[in-house]
Amino acid sequence: MTAYLQNIHPVLPVKDVNSAIEYYCANLGFKLTFVDNPETPAYAGLLRDGVTLHLQWHHKDEWQTGVDRPLLRIYTDEVDVLYDEFSSKNVFHKETQLRDTEWGTREFGIYDPFSNGLIFYRDL
Fold it and tell me: Checking DSSP bridges between strand 43-48 and strand 51-57, what pairing results, if any?
């Protein structure tokens, strides 16, 4: 018998859970699904369509010693629509572009305010 992997729920390290929730909900269309403590959250869950992200607070001293930054690739059939949606949210870096890649995808990438990388793509 072989195990079938069905989902991944990445946990992104953040300096401020409340500001991360605000960023993901206001700019990227996620919805808050849970928070460990509504007044001073240290852990929260977000959902958009079939993608779940968890946000986890890390103390400022951990960032100085090198909290590793993840880079997530998120598949969507509607990458052009998503690019258009995000273009009005002031989330793009000056060099962000929607492009067809040599490896057979159409994609664009952004960084959240905590330097977590998100690449949204579809196959060509």
Answer: antiparallel
Task: Say which CATH number the domain at 55 has.
Answer: 3.10.180.10
Residues 43, 88: Cα–Cα separation, whole Å = 28
Total domains in the chain come to 1
Q: Is residue 35 predicted with pLDDT exceeding 90?
A: yes
Ranges 2-6, 44-48, 117-121: which has the least confidence: 2-6
pLDDT tens per residue, range 58-91: 877 766 666 577 878 898 989 999 999 999 998 9
Pairing of strands 31-35, 43-48: antiparallel
Is residue 70 within 8 A of residue 12, CB to CB? The reply is yes
Q: Is residue 4 in a domain?
A: no
